[in-house]
Design brief:
Elements lengths: L17 H8 L2 E2 H5 L7 H17 L4 H8 L3 H14 L8 H13 L7 E3 L7 E4 L2 E8 L2 E9 L13 E5 L2 E2 H9 L7 H10 L3 E3 L10 E7 L5 E7 L1 E4 L12 H4 L1 E3 L1 H14 L1 H12 L10 E2 L7 E8 L2 E8 L7 H14 L5 E4 L5 E3 H5 L14 E4 L3 H9 L12 H10 L7 E2 L17 E5 L6 H11 L5 E3 L9 E5 H7 L16 E9 L19 E2 L4 H5 L3 H12 L5 E8 L5 E8 L3 E6 L2 E7 L4 E6 L7 E8 L2 E9 L2
Helix pairs in contact: 3-5, 5-6, 7-8, 10-11
């Protein structure tokens, strides 16, 4: 049995992978870390609680929904907390962790992963971890909890990937997960359970209090079925840096849809269990060749965002594109890399995998949809809650090109007369941008989701389903159900910078808060349905198996491959163009298409029937055209579209 008191640096750290070894060597044990915590004064506590009341009472878009759905009153809880703080003195105030606990409970009570109390220094930027990862699978005997990753260099007798956990500090593992799940803010039971599993070994201290226990006792069965256990200390380390600055006014900051907890954990997983990605990122930044790739994998300039590869399933080759995050600060570079990758993937079918993607930039999610469908994309509209403070912010920035809040002002002003709870609904993503590139992948596509898909990824999944791009295959019964655009306290303060009547005051010691500011609504057949608390229900459900967790999602990919094989591929391409005699002549090749409509410079100019998958189309008086678009139909349904720039 390992005694956590025997060592200041765990045995596995000197054996860790070279790209992260130095980083992990700077970690500390929990007791040492906590000795440096607890520096908030009473006045700073009062300020933080007062600012939380401003955000939740005057900015929080889901307050009516959450109060009704979860029978909570966070406003009254904050008022009572403020009242108690006013009666305390520096001598009588309770320990700081109790203040953080109550603030966290207030924010967690609304079960909204967009709306967070963010702990100050020294917690900000830290992750508490155990050097292994546990995941859940089910079979005929029920739920099981299995080790899937172990930090390089860590070992215990008979312990490794495939080990089944039975108890957690003496608690049956399923009960321990449920106890953890009750502490977290998932919008539905699936999301809370998923986070309960994840938090067994990874906890971002920016969002959650440190573990109360300094170590855990892990009981497990080794490969021979022998019962074993060991103790392992929690370690605290700096997390890898965030991708995006969301604290000052910018298009990227104002269009965020991010589960911060998932983003923090995703970066921690890279640090602990994917040092290869760290090495790839370093190589990209240094302009060096990428480390050796795995079979079928395509090199990417954004290894923390994408993983693209060809996979063999039942004798056929399909593309598998994992999008780990939409948290990017360069939208153009992201779209260019996504487009480059999908052009290199097999065109026979694509498994588009967004599991565990906590979101990020809403524009990155919605502008990507067009690449996989001929349909015209309608971005999801968003609404503010009508409050005097929100109206004030929108008026001040109604002509600000960075955030474009003018569209919401008239309906918010009208709310004074009609008593509407929400503003009018307008898209966050520009509709022309959501359709400016058009379809670029022409094989059938299946989207794979789970309960940790959140925020911008919920929006992406809803858009994928609403536009009928392809089937949605879920490993949980619902996505995380986060339907909002989120702003930070820093951004809100910056929006009213220079206003002498601004209610926002800078928070002490790098404390922070985030709030869901605009709620999102679905489109087309689901028009007007909120994403928050409802999420996206998959068209088909796959329960993760033991083989999935041990063998790189083998059963999940097999299921996705069977779905792709059942779908009819549709494709259209312009193989040649000619502009002699003042006419535009197009040679078009198509697959499973019976009609072509041709647009030249966005105007309809021709329509032809296809019998053998090929057509020569002549458009008179179009020799100087700038673009041509061909739309392919099957039995009257638009199934493929291709645009070519002619000059």
């Amino acid at each position: 049995m390992n005694d956590p008191a025997d060592r200041s640096i765990p045995d596995f750290v000197p054996k860790a992978a070279e790209p992260v070894r130095e980083h992990l060597a700077a970690s500390t044990d929990l007791a040492t870390f906590l000795r440096g915590a607890g520096a908030l004064t009473l006045d700073e506590r009062r300020l933080i609680a007062a600012q939380a009341l401003v955000l939740l009472e005057q900015n929080y878009v889901h307050l009516p929904l959450k109060s009704a759905m979860h029978a909570v009153n966070p406003i009254q809880r904050l008022r009572l907390l403020i009242h108690r703080l006013e009666r305390q003195t520096p001598q009588t105030m309770p320990p700081e962790w109790m203040f953080h606990s109550e603030m966290s409970e207030v924010f967690h009570s609304v079960r909204d992963l967009h709306t967070n109390y963010l702990l100050p220094l020294p917690f900000a930027g830290k992750i508490a971890f155990l050097p292994f990862l546990v995941e859940r699978y089910t079979d005929q005997q029920g739920a099981h909890f299995m080790v899937t990753h172990v930090a390089e260099g860590f070992s215990a007798p008979g312990f490794g990937p495939g080990t089944e956990i039975t108890h957690w500090s003496g608690i049956p593992i399923a009960d321990a997960v449920d106890l953890n799940a009750a502490r977290f803010a998932g919008s539905n039971p699936e999301a809370r359970r998923s986070r309960g599993v994840q938090s067994l070994t990874l906890r971002p201290l920016r969002i959650h209090l440190p573990p109360f226990e300094e170590w855990v006792t892990v009981s497990y069965l080794d490969s021979a079925g022998t019962k074993r256990e060991f103790r392992e200390s929690w370690r605290i380390v700096d997390n890898l840096p965030a991708f995006v600055d969301t604290g000052s006014v910018s298009t990227v900051a104002a269009a965020q849809g991010l589960d911060l907890e998932a983003d923090e954990i995703s970066r921690a997983k890279v640090l602990l269990f994917a040092p290869r990605v760290v090495a790839q990122t370093r190589a990209v930044e240094a302009g060096e060749p990428a480390p050796e790739l795995r079979a079928g994998e395509i090199a990417t300039t954004m290894p923390k965002v994408f993983r693209a590869r060809a996979v063999e399933i039942s004798g056929r080759t399909f593309g598998h594109l994992r999008i780990f995050t939409f948290s990017v600060d360069d939208l153009q570079a992201y779209l260019e890399e996504l487009l480059r990758l999908i052009r290199k993937l097999p065109d026979s079918g694509l498994i588009l995998d967004v599991r565990d993607n906590g979101g990020g930039l809403v524009l990155a999610a919605e502008l990507a949809l067009q690449l996989f469908t001929p349909a015209h994309i309608t971005p999801e509209p968003v609404q503010f809650i009508n409050t005097p403070l929100n109206l004030r912010i929108c008026r001040k920035h109604q002509d600000d090109p960075r955030i474009n809040l003018g569209a919401w002002v008239p309906s918010m002003e009208q709310a004074v007369e009609v008593g509407a709870v929400y503003s009018g609904a307008f898209p966050l993503s520009p509709e022309d941008g959501a359709n400016s590139i058009g379809q670029q992948y022409f094989g059938p596509v299946v989207l794979v989701t789970n309960a940790r898909c959140y925020s911008a990824t919920d929006i992406f999944s809803a858009g994928f389903q609403d536009h009928a791009i392809g089937p949605v295959l879920g490993t949980d019964q619902c996505t995380g159900a986060g339907g909002a655009n989120v702003w930070t306290h820093e951004l809100l303060a910056d929006l009213l910078d220079g206003d002498p009547d601004s209610p926002y005051v800078p928070l002490p010691k790098n404390a922070g808060m985030r709030v869901a500011i605009r709620r999102t609504l679905r489109v087309r057949a689901n028009s007007g349905t909120p994403v928050e608390d409802l999420g996206v229900t998959p068209d088909e459900l796959h329960h993760m198996t033991r083989a999935d967790l041990r063998e790189d999602n083998v059963d999940l990919l097999e299921r996705a491959g069977r779905i792709l094989q059942s779908l009819t591929p549709h494709a259209v391409s312009i193989t040649d163009t000619d502009t002699t005699d003042g006419a535009l002549r197009l040679k078009v090749k198509a697959t499973n298409i019976d009609r072509l409509d041709v647009y030249v410079d966005q105007r309809p100019r021709a329509s032809v029937d296809l019998a053998d998958g090929q057509a020569d189309v002549t458009v008179p008086d179009a020799a100087n055209a700038h673009s041509a678009r061909v739309e392919g139909f099957a039995s009257g349904r638009l199934v493929a579209s291709r645009t070519e720039q002619l000059r």
